[in-house]
Structures are given as structure tokens and as C-alpha cells.
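Batch manifest, entry 17 of 40.
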Amino acid sequence: MITLSRLSGKPRYVIGAATAIGIALAVPMVGVAQQEAPAATAAASMAGAPFSFSGIVKQKLPAVVGIISTVDAPRGAQPQLPPGMGDLFGAPQDPRGPQGPAMAQGSGFIITGDGYVVTNNHVIDQASGIEVVLEDERRFDATLVGTDPATDIALLKIESDEELPHVEWGASDDLEIGDWTVAIGNPFGLGGTVTAGILSARSRNINAGPYDDFLQTDAAINRGNSGGPLFNVDGDVVGVNTAIVSPSGGSVGIGFAVPSAVAQRIVADLRDDGSVERGWLGVGIQPVTDDIAAALGLDAAEGTLVSSVTRDSPAAQAGLMPGDVILSLGGEPIDGPRALSLAVADLEVGSDATLSILRDGKAEDLSVEIGLHPSQSIAAADADQPSDEGTPRLGVSVATLDAALRSRMDLPEELSGVAVTSVQPGSAAAKSGLQPGDVITTASGDDIADLNALRAAVAASAEADAPLLLRVYRGGNYTFIAVKLDPTAE
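Output type: C-alpha cells
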């Protein structure tokens, strides 16, 4: 069976177990580079390949780091993976269940001399402590600056008295299929491992999230490579290694990296204020098939079909209606739902854009003001909540369930509650096992329909000095989670 897997060396958990299995692989960072026989190297050069990647390796290896994160695994917790991602983290299964704090490992790279480090979100997700290990074996405690689960990017910060080795971003848009790529990372805790291959494909959608736009490479990458850099032949970072397709958990030459065109923009937003703003339209969408095109009287299957419009959303205010076919946004052609999602997310919140649509077979242009996604609005409101109210924070960002979110999360229509979009590492929610993708339906027995209801439940629980009992919908089933609020976390 072929499985799509995240690459960090995280532990495996068992439902209903008491604590977490701890796997600590603190291996010194030793540089290991692939080498070829002289004859093979000469032959490769004649075919247009470089004689050696040693120049890139010598310059860039010092800026590639190992990431070791400590996870306080609660009872019954399981790693949250995007749909289709298998649990191939490599930890042995213990029938007694998890046994205590666990260690997860991955890769990362330093992008500034003052210590900003890029990695994958899933490498440090729910970590209570993060350590960065340099190639020369220096170790630093890292601070989490911000994460973007939608693209699986996280930004860390380490402090040093001297300037740190760092890498530069390259232009992933300039890569062509067949171009050489070089991956450096920390597979299986070996540290500083270098592999090379070609760019196999662009714009891959592996159903890991709504903004999939991966580079595919056949450079060998394995568990522990997560968050490491993918370089071009100039030694610039063109991708962040994130996932593989594998029948066994090891490399078979199909790896995926977040393009630098995406990662660099996300990192800049995270560095600015610790969060990422994305444009929002507020529609449910689906492909235009040949049968749908014929039913609508269209000459060809093009654009993307609007299946629903969220009340009071930017789309609703612009006059968009179910049954409309969106052909372009801001003059850029839209060839399907994924193209629209990416295009809208890239637009600045508050900016105006023109939607070209087909309605009842006639072309129309609509002007729309791009909004901020509700999950980010709620997160911002939570961050703006005064800290002197004396109410402990739960440590989550949530979104109300609209048609678009239900469709994206594949939730039943009758389900009511708020969806957890992110969990703050080390928070009360994280320690209790809440995960992104959970839907909180009740708190202390009361139905939860919005952020205000959840805040009220948290405040009431804090006043009673009792754990907050949440009923959570996860993966088609309901479960109860008791959150012990931290009175010092306001």
C-alpha cells in the first residue's frame, strides 16, 4: 500500500493510552554527502550535470539544523495529520500506550544571521519545548514565532552572541522540470545528510490542505527531513521539504516541498506579527465537469462552479449566486476550485478585485472586496482580548461552521459547534489533546455556536476552579476532553 507521509520523526500514539512513548534521537550533526565514482561523475557532467555539489554543501550545510521538540502527550492524544497522511513516524507501538513526554525530530534552516529558523509546522506542533541543533553541534532553545498549519510552515527564533550561518531564498517559479535540486536535512537523526535529484513536477496537489502547490523532487528524502531546505544549483532555497509518497516509509524518489514562492511569503507574514492573513471570498465551489457544462448550456467545461454562498460574506455582498461559474479573478483565468482558492488567498485583505462570471449563459463582471477569513478574524479578536480580566486562555483559535468550512472539512450538515483552526503550543488546550480540525460542540454541557459562547464557558469554568469539559467531534466520532485551565495564563 502506498502511503503519503509527513517526514518528521514524531512518536506514535495509541487511542486510550495513558501517556506518550518517548523516542529521543539526539544524534550529533555529522555531515554526510553523496559521492559518485569519478567515471560516473564525468559521465554526468557530459550530460549537463555538475561535476559535484560539494561547493553548495560546504556553503549551506552549516545553516541547516536539526529540530528536536518535546511533546507532553496527554491521555488518548494522537498526532493530527492532514487527510491522506499516514502515521509513519517510526516510533515502536507500545501496547501499554504512551509512557510520558516524547521527543520528535525534524529539520530546519536558518534564514537570517540573527537566528530566524524555518521548519514545518508538524515538526513542532503542540511542542512544549523546541531545541535547534547546528551542524557544529551547538544547541539553542528556540522560541516559536508563529505557525501556518494551512501550508505547514513554522518560524522559530534562536538567540546567539554571534552572527549565525544562514541561507538565501531562491525563485521556485524559475525552476523547470528536469532542473537539479539538492536536499539537506536530518533523516532518521543522522544529521547533515545531502541528496540530489531533479525537479519531477510542479504544482502538485496531494490533498494535504486547501493551498497545496507542492514541488515534486526525486532527491532522496526520508523521515526527519521535514522542514529541511531544497536548494537549486545556485545554492538558494527553492522549497521546504514536507512529505513523501512511499510504500514502506522510506524514500522511493517521490518527495514534496513547499515552493519558496509560497514559503517566503508565509515566513515574512509570520515574522511580521506571528500570523498569516489570507483573503476570503466566502463560497463553496466545485469543478465544472463536462456533464455540468452541458446542463448549464456552456460550450466547454471551464472555470469553477459556485455551489453555495456564505451569508454576509464578500461573495454575497458582491452579488455572487449559486450556479454562477467563475471564469477569472482580477484578470487571471480560473481553471478550477484549487486555482480559485490559491488566487483568493494571495489577495490582500480589503483590496478590490473583479470577478468575471457566467450566469445563465451570459458573461458578467462583479466587483468584490476581499475579506479576512473568519477563523483569522476570530483569532485576532481573541488576541485583542484584554489580559487583565483574570480569565485563563484556552489557547485555541476557532472558526464558526459555514458552508465552505463544512465542505472543506467534510463535516455533516447537522453538526453544530466551532472548528479548532490552531492550537497554541504549550497551552491548556494542547496539553489536554485538542487538535486543529476538532469541532467543539459543547462546553460544560452548553452548546457552543460561536467564540463568545466558548469564552463564557472558559470564564465560568475558571471561576468555579474546575476543568472545562468539552465534547469534541473528531474524525466522525465524538469524544469528551477535560481541559485543566492554567490560572497564570491570561
